[in-house]
Amino acid sequence: MSRQETEKKRKGTAGYTLLNVAYFAAFCTVHAYAAVFLLSRGFSNTEVGILLAVANITSAVFQPFIAGIIDKKGWLTNRRFILIACMIILAGSVLLGFIQDNKPVIFVIYALIYMIQFAYQPVMTALCFEYQKKGVDIYYGLARGLGSAGFAVTSAFIGRAVEKYGTSLLMTCTVVIMIISVIAVYLYRPAKDRDGDVSSREASDDPETSEENAGERNSHDGIADFFRAYPAFFLFIIASVCFYFAHNMINDFMIQIIRSLGGGETELGYSNFLQAILELPVMALIGIVLKKVSPAKLLFFSGVAFFIKILILIFADNMVWMYISQSFQLFAYAVFIPAAAYYVSQTMTSHDQVKGQAYVTSAITIGGVFSNLVSGMILDNLGMKPMLITGTIVCFAGVLTGACALKRPDRADNS
Question: What CA–CA distance (Å, rounded) separates 329 from 336?
Fold first, then answer.
């Protein structure tokens, strides 16, 4: 690689990295501390579960819908949707900073910003591949890994700060992060788009655009049509729901798990920091690994790691075991996210890839829906161990389904 190409890739990666760092810093304050914030506003465990389930259900429906609109190459581009999403989260966070005891209003606003933030995660991934096609060189794994580092650093400081200053600090931090996000998204675009934010796909007389329009006619817009075209991907989606049932159970109710082991908000911050910082080296190096190991094999490997991660917690009796469990993030989430992005990129036509990325995130979201609904009720009525055992059983079912799904991945038909 020449010096000029290296410099070009460095600049492209730097801009995309800033988007990821800001996104996952806000993901920490909104998602990782959702239970902490809502419990402080008078919500019960069951009510927290219901709120997060509503947000996840809405997100699961919204993501493919938005992806279908973006794939049709109209006014709503990946970048514009991210910009709109950031402004909605910014406005919602400002409002939550002033509302203390109105549970119905808090419910609606928090569910909205939680849902919107999940909804633009697959669009962030799609933006990377879109910009790469436009000539913007990006180290996706490195940028995504540094996004996890942003989550880690935020979590390391926010836990102790919340103990000292209260949960209103979460919304203050989210407002600051979202302002940075809006500026970063506005400034980050390919050079040829800067005059009018028009994408390279708009020139109808361009042969390359004509090919895109032809491909668009062959895209699979309906859910049934999409999964008929990609049957192995359908099984993979079911497996992913099971993986993230367990993953979200740990993340959404982590403060309760930690309290049962004798910890508090400070330990929550350390625990989130540990699992997030471990993602950085794996995601940064995933491109090298993928040259030797297929995305499908890596995804199955990550599913096994999700299973081991929650299995450890069944037998945990102190915070040391919690940290050991969180260390499996190195092989679970850190492998799954970039491997899934490349899996979609390799197995689907370009005109189905935004929808494919959205379905992966929808699977993550749906896993969260079932986890939210079930976990809160089990925790309130039966206790911690039954909740973790349930998550372990569901995750094991995902491992078995994943073995079938990933044995023979789909192949993109670009004809």
Answer: 10
| pLDDT value at residue 329 | 87
Kindly state whether residue 206 falls inside one of the protein's structural domains.
no
- DSSP result, 6-65: HHHHHHHHHHHHHHHHHHHHHHIIIIITHHHHHHHTT--HHHHHHHHHHHHHHHHHHHHH
Work out how many domains the chain is built from and give that number.
Answer: 1
* CATH number of residue 86's parent domain: 1.20.1250.20
pLDDT over threshold 80, residue 208: no
pTM here?
Answer: 0.68
Which 3 state secondary structure label does DSSP give 328? helix
Q: Is residue 210 part of a domain?
A: no
Within 83-206, strands assigned E span none
Which among 222, 309, 304 has a CA at the least distance from the CA of 274? 309
In a domain, 125, yes or no: yes
- Owning domain of residue 84: 10-190+224-407
Evaluate if residue 373 carries a pLDDT over 70: yes
Asked whether residue 192 carries a pLDDT value surpassing 80, the answer given is: no
Within a domain: 263? yes
How far apart CA 415 and CA 413 sit, in angstroms, is: 6
pLDDT given for residue 177 in this prediction: 93
